[in-house]
Amino acid sequence: MKEWTRDERYRVLQSPDEIKDLYDRIQKSVYRQAYHVQPITGLSSDPNGFALHEGKWHLCYQWCPWGAVHGLKYWYHVTSPDLLHWQNEGIGLAPDRDYDNKGAHSGSAISVGDKLYFFYTGNHRDENWVRTPWTCAAFLDENGKLQKLDAPLFGPRDDHSEHQRDPKIVWNAEKQKYYIFIGAQTLDLRGCVLIYESEQPLTGWRFAGELKVPGYEKFGGMWECPYIVRIGGKDVLIVSPQYTKLPGRGESTNHNVYFLGHMDYDTLTFTPDGPYQYLDYGFDFYAAQGAANVADPEKAILIAWIGLPDNHYPTEEEDWEGSMSLPRELRVKDGRLVQTPIAGVEALRDQALPADGTLPKAGELEIRVPDGDFDLALYCKEDGTGGLRLHYDAQARVCTVDRRGMDKRFNPQVFEVLDVPMDAPLTSLRIFIDRSSTEIFFNGGEKTFTTHSYPTEGERFCRVSEGAELKLWSYKTSVTDEFVV
After folding, report:
1. Residue 24, H or E segment
2. Is 100 a catalytic residue?
3. Residue 134, SS3?
4. Quick one: which H or E segment has residue 430?
5. What pLDDT does 356 receive?
6. Are strands 286-290 and 104-112 parallel, antiparallel or unpaired?
7. What per-residue confidence (pLDDT) applies to 388?
8. Which of 122, 325, 354, 478 could form a disulfide with 100 if both were Cys (CB 3.0 to 4.6 A apart)?
9. Distance between CA atoms of 446 and 295, rounded to whole angstroms?
């Protein structure tokens, strides 16, 4: 695997011609996705700037154009009319100012009237590589391009570490204020969230205080990508705690969790109703971002990076890596989040396939699970061996997902086997497979499990326990892979 120098990783893209050959080579990969957003070259990571504006969905992702490496980050911009069909729009934000000279890092967006505003972290480093994170803004112009403000909105606080990033903007109608939530770290290396407030989206920002979450004052060493939303009368707080190991998550030190509870903007306190819950139980799910301007008060729409910081994946050998998850609808039911695939995803079904256990390269499975223990082998060989295995222990109400049987194994030092504790007996599975990803929805979205998967030509079969009912569809390609820079 290539060893990248700092100069290589932080090289500025001067012309699309510099990556055209790389793009052409990557197009030949058998693992390019059919209906998931993915990088045109290099690496994609956190979803950014996710919002509905004047009938069109806007989404950006963190992008390093040179290869599957974390280096100089751009925002790459894609749009969709329906959250299913995505079109490449080219670079959204480039690190071309002094205040973001080493990267346009993660952030959010919000639609206000006929304006769409974007908020991001400008990653500045000096000649000694000392970081200064600036909170910056941009807007969508009449030509559909993102234009930066001349100066940042505000700088970092000295009473916290250099880790202050990922601004999430929200509007609170009761207070008639905008709030920006920023993932941060205290000087004694505890994860936290900083809150700023203003009556206007682009001016007047002032520090309000640090978010208080009783019982979680010492939870991880950095809270990345904070997101807060009200669903069905409940406040939901989602964060990605880093630098800590959590129960049932192997050796990983990067996680995505949520709290249900109540947000008090007077005291800047989020009071959880109970303990944190895992947003997704899979191997590869991180930095989840909720869309702004979803009008339905009973749901939110979420997308995440299929991948984890510090992990490595087989397509790195092809100089690209990463994908966005299928967008999900979030609702609150019985004190838990329920996640379902985006409405209308059935429109991607190309044709119903025989339930003979032969998998398409991109498609959907629906499985009715019989009573008792249950087994599924996904991407197994024709004789039923190997593959991604799922075993349900009915007595323990636990699903165990094991990917050690795949020909292409990766990140074994972090985890290859994970459990999904079920709140009710397992009755159904809905599984979305693409050329390098798998997303499993248990019991109508009671729990979810997301993982990268890289089946070889011989791993194109599935087997289910006797008594299970399997329905299978192939999917159309819905993501344009055009070379737009």
Report:
1. helix 17-26
2. no
3. strand
4. strand 428-434
5. 87
6. unpaired
7. 98
8. 122
9. 23
CA 81 from centre of chain: 20
Contact 352, 363 (CB under 8 A): no
Beta-carbon count within 10 A of 333 CB = 11
What pLDDT, on a 0 to 100 scale, did the predictor assign at position 357? 86
- Any residues with CB less than 8 A from the CB of 429 and at least 6 apart, and which? 365, 366, 367, 369, 376, 390, 440, 441, 442
Residue 62, helix vs strand vs coil = strand
d(C-alpha 467, C-alpha 394), whole Å: 15
| Structure-token pair, residue 224 | 């990345």
CA-to-CA dists, residue 15 to 127, 174, 226, 273, angstroms: 25, 47, 34, 51
What residues in the chain have per-residue pLDDT under 50?
none
Global pTM reads: 0.97
Q: Token match 């499975």: residue?
A: 365
Token code pair at residue 294? 């979803």
Instruction: Compute CA distances 22 → 75, 126, 483, 485, whole Å.
Output: 19, 30, 11, 13
Handedness of CA 225, 272, 341, 453 (dihedral sign): positive
What span, in angstroms and rounded, lies between the C-alpha atoms of 475 and 141? 35
Please state whether 34 falls in left (phi above 0), alpha (psi between -120 and 50) or beta. Answer: alpha
* Catalytic residue (choose from 17, 21, 46, 114): 46
Sign of the alpha-carbon torsion through 220, 226, 231, 235: positive
CA atoms of 14 and 74, how far apart (whole Å) = 13
Distance between CA atoms of residues 260 and 268, nearest Å? 15
Whether the CA torsion 410, 482, 86, 115 is positive or negative: it is positive
**pLDDT given for residue 485 in this prediction:** 98
Contact indicator for 365, 433 with CB cutoff of 8 Å: yes
Domains of the chain: 6-341 (2.115.10.20), 345-475 (2.60.120.560)
